[in-house]
Design brief:
It contains 12 helices and 7 strands. It has a single domain (2-258), classed as Alpha-Beta Complex (Protein-Tyrosine Phosphatase, Chain A), CATH 3.90.190.10. The model has no long low-confidence stretch (mean pLDDT 92). With 260 residues, the protein is α/β, with parallel strands linked by helices. Helix 4 (107-120) packs parallel to helix 10, helix 5 (125-139) packs across helix 12 (248-258) and helix 6 packs antiparallel against helix 7 (171-179). It is 50% helix and 8% strand.
């Protein structure tokens, strides 16, 4: 699992989420990448990312986040950034984990808040709009893509898991890829970097364990998102088609392009 992680200094949680067994074969490697934002990317980071040849970046952040934390790109990069305009987090300029941190004091508070957050993520209009563009982008033959949000764990985690589920990746592998956030690269640096914003808003009111829970991923978080999809639509596939436009034709195009 760790071999799929690209170790970088200023971009956290950068990794390949291909390579898993899927329906009819194996997901291609080197074509599906995910990460946190690139606001703090170093020149060496940008060079390493440039060598991958990413053609499309799907940015799950909101407009305010993009304005406050503009991503750095290699000077020779000529790809396209894809997003639906608007806000994907409730508090403008903040990531969704910042939003969940409101009122949190203990680790139990944090777990409850994150489960509640994930219950709503699959239905946020602007996030849904970008998820639709994400699937359409993957279904077209553009080349390698990168999916990211702020920390690369919540909105990105749900997005990557949606693609895995659509392509028949085993539930254990879907969860394993999601949980890899907790150990991918320098997880302590990732927590410290994102915690700055959380501490700025909530400071000493939040315990260290609560902060770590907010900045981690846990199985019950992702389970909450898929349970919400099934609660509203009966089956994940029905949610994907009705909400994300992932009908049989689009899924077939995803399989043709991404499964070998």
């Amino acid at each position: 699992m760790e071999n799929r992680v690209l170790p970088l200094s200023g971009i956290h949680n950068f990794r390949d989420y291909g390579g898993y067994r899927a329906r009819g074969g194996t997901l291609r490697t080197g074509h599906l990448w995910r990460s946190g934002h690139h606001f703090d990317a170093t020149p060496d980071d940008l060079e390493a990312v440039h060598r991958i040849g990413i053609a499309r970046v799907i940015d799950l952040r909101g407009d305010s986040e993009r304005a406050q934390f503009p991503c750095l790109r290699h000077e020779e990069w000529a790809g396209q950034v894809v997003f639906h305009p608007g806000e994907t987090a409730g508090d403008h300029g903040k990531a969704v984990h910042d939003e969940a941190a409101a009122g949190v004091r203990t680790a139990d508070d944090a777990r409850y808040a994150m489960v509640k957050l994930y219950d709503k993520l699959p239905f946020r209009p602007v996030l849904v709009g970008t998820f639709k563009l994400y699937l359409q982008t993957l279904a077209a033959d553009h080349g390698p893509s990168l999916l990211h949000c702020f920390a690369g764990k919540d909105r990105t985690g749900v997005g990557a898991a949606i693609v895995h589920r659509l392509l028949g990746v085993h539930a254990d592998d879907v969860m394993a890829d999601y949980l890899l956030t907790n150990t991918a690269g320098n997880s302590e640096a990732r927590i410290a970097a994102a915690a700055t914003n959380v501490r700025a808003s909530f400071g000493p009111k939040m315990t260290d364990d609560a902060l770590r829970t907010i900045m981690s991923v846990q199985p019950e978080f992702l389970d909450s998102a898929f349970a919400a999809m099934e609660r509203e639509h009966g089956r994940f596939e029905a949610y994907a088609e009705a909400v994300l436009g992932a009908d049989a034709a689009l899924v077939a195009r995803l399989e043709e392009r991404l499964v070998v």
